[in-house]
Write a structure and sequence with these properties.
Blueprint lengths: L1 H7 L3 H12 L2 H12 L11 H13 L4 E6 L13 E8 L2 E11 L17 E3 L2 E3 L3 H21 L4 E9 L10 H6 L10 E4 L7 E6 L1 E10 L14 H21 L16 E9 L16 E10 L5 H18 L4 E10 L2 E2 L5 H14 L4 E5 L5 H6 L6 E3 L14 E3 H18 L3
Parallel strand pairs: 3-6, 3-7, 7-15, 8-14
Antiparallel strand pairs: 1-2, 2-6, 4-5, 5-16, 8-13, 9-11, 9-12, 10-11
Length: 434
């Protein structure tokens, strides 16, 4: 009787059966996460992407998914040594309907120092799976796969289509992954209707989007001279010091006073921010011996400006240029150049969007609490789904604690993966209209 109800798609018994199916895969989700961790897809430089894509594809291919392996040729970092491979798996339903897509990035950052376990050992211990990428985001990928597999077992005659993708390069901007695929139409209607990205933002939170970002390089110019007679030259580093002082005394306090209505976490990120990413001036120090006695004629700074829905990108840029232009008017011989490096507008999916409502209902049913709606302080691949794919019905939802990402002894809780898989399975049920 349960099987008949499940096939029909409705009723409390059908949903109970789906939840039991996910719960019964607890050991499987842990092993899948561990197996994914054991493929060290470190970016940069972008190692073992093909191996990871094929591992995922082989599993899904056995479950009736059609596979597309897509190399993002010509994107940043792509080379014959480090090709940017992605996999997109699609399973068509028994009749027409919407498509729900689960997207996870397969790349991870370097392990770094300070680990007490093998960062690529996929250690399962004390209810947790440890390793680089466990939290960000191979645990989320594993949870989405288990959710989909359990759903197909219970509802083999579902309508519409289900997609799962494993994509490259999110940690370096996503240009060899979701951005490339979006340009090929993989994240646009009519192919896809709903996108869930299982990033680690706590299992009872729905991430609606992210702040905007503008990266730029500022260069100040001077005139070289002998270091024993700096008065005969013009020190570009001192000019850059004036820029730093102006940012510190004028711009950064002004940004800190701004607040957004976006539910950004942590609360400190609800203001605009400016990070000095790097500063370089004069001769390098990567050689033996002393540097030449010269007045530096060039200094460079990279800034990372995060901005809010209430701000415009043009206004953000004009604000920085205004500081530099004032220095050019008031400081003798001050000259500068500025170059755009990277920019993304803020994005935030509406709370009444179908994908938000479906995941929210899943959280209520599985965890017996109201979901928390959040916005990420930094960007993730939703930016490409929105900006290139023109698909607004996209959120991030997955297991894991964001604070653990990129840390030594990174882990994901097995119970958290199971609970998130239950939520994703319920959301899938609702979004496909069962």
């Amino acid at each position: 009787m349960k099987r008949d109800a499940a096939v029909a798609g409705g009723g409390e018994a059908a949903m109970d059966g789906l939840m039991e199916a996910v719960a019964g895969k607890r050991d499987e989700v842990a092993e899948l996460a561990a197996d994914l961790i054991r493929i060290p897809t470190v970016n940069p430089p972008g190692e073992n992407y093909r191996d990871c894509a094929e591992f995922l594809g082989e599993r899904l291919g056995k479950r009736g998914f059609e596979l597309s392996y897509v190399r993002a040729e010509g994107t940043p970092g792509d080379s014959d040594r480090y090709p940017r491979w992605n996999v997109v798996a699609r399973r068509e339903g028994a009749r027409p309907g919407p498509c729900v897509h689960f997207n996870s990035h397969i790349d991870v950052v370097e392990a770094g120092a300070g680990w007490t376990v093998d960062p690529f050992g996929g250690v399962i211990r004390d209810g947790k799976v440890y390793g680089r990428g466990a939290c960000d985001m191979k645990g989320g990928l594993a949870a989405s796969v288990i959710a989909v597999e359990a759903f197909i077992e219970r509802f083999p005659d579902f309508p519409g289509a289900i997609e799962i993708s494993g994509t490259a390069d999110e940690e370096s901007g996503g240009y060899g992954g979701v951005a490339y695929l979006a340009r090929q139409g993989f994240f646009s209607k009519p192919r896809v209707d709903h996108v869930i990205i299982p990033e680690p933002l706590n299992k009872d939170c729905i991430c609606l989007g992210h702040r905007g970002v503008w990266w730029a390089k500022i260069e100040t110019r001077g005139r070289i001279a002998h270091g024993s007679m700096p008065f005969l030259g013009d020190c570009a580093v001192r000019h850059m010091g004036a820029v730093l002082n102006a940012f510190e005394c004028e711009l950064i306090p002004a940004l800190a006073a701004r607040r957004t209505a976006m539910p950004v976490i942590p609360p400190g990120a609800r203001s605009s921010t400016l990070n000095i990413n790097s500063i370089h001036g004069g001769q390098g120090e990567d050689f033996d011996g002393l540097p030449a006695p010269c007045v530096p004629d060039s200094a460079r700074m990279v800034i990372d400006r995060r901005f809010l829905m209430e701000e415009s990108l043009d206004g953000v840029k004009a604000e920085v240029r205004g500081v530099l232009d004032r220095l050019a008017e008031t400081r003798k011989d001050f000259r500068y150049e500025i170059e755009d490096l990277f920019e993304v507008l803020p994005t935030m999916t509406e709370r009444d969007a179908p994908v938000v409502q479906a995941v929210a209902e899943g959280i209520r049913e599985v965890m017996r609490r109201e979901p928390t709606y959040v916005v990420s302080p930094g960007t993730y691949d939703q930016k490409h789904v929105d900006r290139i794919g023109k698909l607004k019905n996209c959120i991030a939802y997955g297991p894991g604690i964001l604070d653990l990402a990129h840390q030594p002894d990174e882990y994901v809780g097995i119970d958290d993966m199971v609970d998130s898989a239950k939520v994703m399975a319920r959301a899938l049920h609702g979004l496909l209209g069962l």
